[in-house]
Write a structure and sequence with these properties.
The chain has two domains: 153 residues, no CATH class; 92 residues, no CATH class. It is elongated, with a radius of gyration of 20 Å. It has 267 residues and is an all-alpha fold. The protein has twelve helices and two strands.
């Protein structure tokens, strides 16, 4: 019989593998293509921060230990020949984490492809690890795009969660005006987007910041969330939530998931 601690760890790993298999079925993203073509990109050396040839280090230099990053990969194994690798079980756990940053069928709307891409090429403005690709024509970017595009048509066409306007008007819109512990509101900085007397005008702005069915891909929830809880590294304003267990964050997440409707703001 396995010792209790080892048995618990094995059970947890098997559970994660099962979830990853389910994630593949739901997303249509191909695990074998991921393991053979996508995952090696994370290990590939890109130099280091030191002269005479400074560059960006391999993705795993940050994404295997920084718990605050949305892309948290398993620790690498060392081979007897000096190689480094992930076991298949570890790759399946990685596959789940990576898939959460992808919109199947839509590379241009996938955080995995946009964060390391130069802003001039259509990427997001900031990436703590630097910009890895200067162009969408980069072979690595094209490999990732191919993986995302070939997600099964049924998965890509799966209807998004329905986000309820009435709940937004009654419960979400007021949050934008509520004072945080620091004494600020979202509207202190985001006047143009949120400080509208008519909720319908704010509704348009907020819809650009959410991905229905995916709270952790929604900038509205991740930007003001503390990095230690998985939030974005950079937010010029204060951190509104220190944990995803915050009641307000949970309410917004349930709304983005399509689980909160109507005008009742109580749990």
């Amino acid at each position: 019989m396995l010792p209790r601690a080892r048995g618990a760890a094995l059970s947890a790993a098997l559970a994660m593998v099962a979830v990853a298999g389910s994630a593949q079925a739901q997303s249509g993203l191909d695990f074998d293509f991921y393991r053979n073509n996508v995952e090696p990109i994370f290990i590939r050396s890109r130099g280091d921060f030191l002269p005479p040839d400074p560059g960006d280090p391999a993705c795993v230099m940050c994404h295997t230990w920084q718990s605050s990053t949305p892309l948290m990969l398993e620790s690498l194994e060392d081979g007897a020949d000096g190689s480094i690798f992930w076991s298949e079980e570890q790759s399946r756990i990685n596959f789940e984490a990576v898939s959460a940053l992808v919109t199947p069928g839509d590379p241009q709307n996938s955080r995995l492809l946009l964060a390391p891409l130069s802003a001039a090429a259509g990427g997001t403005p900031l990436h703590t690890g630097g910009k890895v690709w200067d162009s969408q024509d980069d072979p690595e970017w094209q490999t990732l795009a191919q993986w995302v595009r070939t997600a099964s048509a049924s998965a890509a066409a799966e209807p998004a969660a329905s986000v309820d306007y009435e709940f937004f008007r009654a419960c979400v819109h007021p949050v934008l005006f509520q004072v945080t512990e620091s004494g600020l509101t979202c509207t202190n900085c985001h006047v143009a987007e949120f400080a509208q007397a008519d909720p319908e005008e704010s509704w348009i702005a907020v819809n650009r910041l959410i991905e229905p069915g995916h709270p952790t891909r929604s900038r509205l929830l991740m930007h003001p969330l503390h990095p230690d809880a998985g939030g974005d590294y950079v937010h010029n304003g204060v951190r509104r939530w220190r944990t995803q267990n915050d009641a307000e964050w949970q309410m917004l997440a349930a709304w983005v998931n399509g689980e909160r409707t109507g005008t009742d703001c109580r749990r």
